[in-house]
Give the backbone structure.
Amino acid sequence: MNSSIKWAAISVGGVLAIAHIGILGHLIRKQPQEVVQVPTINIPAGTPYSSYKIEAGKDGYSIEYRANDPKILESHKSIDLNKSQNGLFGGKKYEDRKEYRSDQYTMEGVRNMGGASLPGGKSAKDVECIVADAGARSQGAMAGTAISTGLLAPAVMNIPYIGWLAAGWANLLGQRVGEAAGSQVNSMISDC
């Protein structure tokens, strides 16, 4: 009986061994299927507030990258206040207030006050003319004040009772005339 069990175990083991060898041979000889290669996309990392949109199809792929997205940060607040109280002499005061506030912020948390940009924008020449005009007005105002302080103020200072006031008016007049003259001279020189 021992020999029959021994031969049964050998035959079962042999069948299993041949089956394993057959399966391994089948797997090794199996034709490789065509594998679709997916492209490797190196997306920039480490930038806060960035968004990516990747679309892939049979014909290729496209990537849309937006740094600092969302470009506009918004905050919405609403306040409802219903308050009543007795007045000083028994009259009732009632206050019903509703406020709604919508703000836009930059990434640094600074609130947008609006009005910083014009719809059409300004050209570099326009900006240059505005800066030159501001500087010319400032220089003209200083020159006009200096001239009026040296020439007009001593003359009007001797007016009784209002001399000190007239000297101030003379300085203001000199400042305004100098500012206008500086702007005129700048417009002729700068071709603005």
Residues 124-190 form one domain.
